[in-house]
Amino acid sequence: MATTAGYSFIYSVATTINGTYSEIAAVTADLNMSTDIATITDTSNAGYVLRLPGLNDTASSCEANLDVSNTAYGHITTARTNRTDLFLKVVPDGVTGNGFKLPVVVENITFGGMSMSGPLTYSVSFQGNGAVVADNA
Question: pTM to 2 decimals?
Answer without folding.
Answer: 0.83
